[in-house]
Amino acid sequence: MYGGGGHYGGDGGGAANANSLFGGGGFMPSQSTAVPESSGGVSKGRNAQTLLPLTVKQIMDAAQASDDKSNFTINGVEVSTVRLVGRMLGKIERVTDVQFTLDDGTGKIDVNRWENESSDTKEMADVNDGNYVIVNGGLKGFQGKRHVVAYSVRRVTNFNDITHHFLHCIYVHLELTRSKATSFLGSGNTSENDVSSLIMNVFHDPAIIDREDGITKAYVIERLKLPEDMVSKVFQQHIDDGNIYNTIDDLHFKSAMNG
């Protein structure tokens, strides 16, 4: 889609995966963001500052909260902080900031990165047009146009990161829609569904993903500040379902989605 594998260096497998994903032939998250009317509308349970992995199309399809035009909702959840992965195009360097367009194969969105510190300038000097980048930033809207104000822009050096991002998009989308569907159908225990999502959010925290040994149940309990018996019950269910697995011993776990 982007002129073959020239941008990927010698990693043929990574190039094939990336081309498949960006060409629309690989695993792509469903773009439906509809929420059943009986589900209670916008969820306030998840902090809008939670970093969500998204595609550009999901952002463009996002609804704006009726009570605050600066807020966006996807799958009934308020969204303000996002992670995107795509190709950098049209980089423009100015005195205090850098602007570029990010194309992830599902759409394009403008990105702005302010250079307040020397580290910001160094970070942006490392990325150029044609590079695939990981962008973390705030989702903004102005005069009907959506854009991202980036907090960090990192060049992709391992193209498995592209595959991981889109799989993560799928997982989060399914988790959100499944939670809504369960509530809509009136089946299951809503509090357990909430705890289940909270536990997996811990495992998919960007600060946790790269831990080779994983994390312990005690760490999850301490972080969530929830009753031990409640977390233990749902934690065991995730083990039984294969969502998490043991690593170095019986106490440490990683998410199956994190590899």
Structure commentary:
Strand 6 and strand 7 form a beta hairpin. The protein starts with 11 loop residues before the first helix and ends with a strand. It has two domains: 118 residues, OB fold (Dihydrolipoamide Acetyltransferase, E2P) (Beta Barrel); 71 residues, Arc Repressor Mutant, subunit A (Orthogonal Bundle). The chain is built from eight helices and twelve strands. 35% of the residues lie in helices and 26% in strands. The N terminus is likely disordered. The strands form three sheets. Strands 5-6-7-9-8 form a five-stranded mixed barrel. The protein is α+β, with helices and mostly antiparallel strands and 259 residues long.
Helix content percent band:
25-40%
Structural class: alpha+beta
Looking at CATH, which topology of the largest domain would you report?
A: OB fold (Dihydrolipoamide Acetyltransferase, E2P)
- Give the CATH superfamily of the largest domain: Nucleic acid-binding proteins
The Cα radius of gyration reads 19 Å
- In the CATH hierarchy, the architecture of the largest domain is Beta Barrel
Number of helices in the DSSP assignment: 8
Would you list the SSEs in sequence order as H and E? HEHEEEEEEHEEHHHEHHEE
Could you give the distance between the termini?
27 Å
**Can you list the strand order of the major beta sheet?**
5-6-7-9-8
What would a concise description of this structure say?
It is found in: Nucleus. With 259 residues, this protein is an alpha+beta fold.
SSE arrangement:
Layout: H1 12-22, E1 52-53, H2 56-61, E2 63-64, E3 72-74, E4 77-79, E5 81-93, E6 97-103, E7 108-114, H3 118-125, E8 132-142, E9 145-155, H4 160-185, H5 190-203, H6 206-209, E10 215-216, H7 217-224, H8 228-240, E11 244-246, E12 252-255
Parallel strand pairs: 1-5, 7-9
Antiparallel strand pairs: 2-3, 3-4, 5-6, 5-8, 6-7, 8-9, 10-12, 11-12
Helix pairs in contact: 1-4, 4-5, 5-8, 7-8
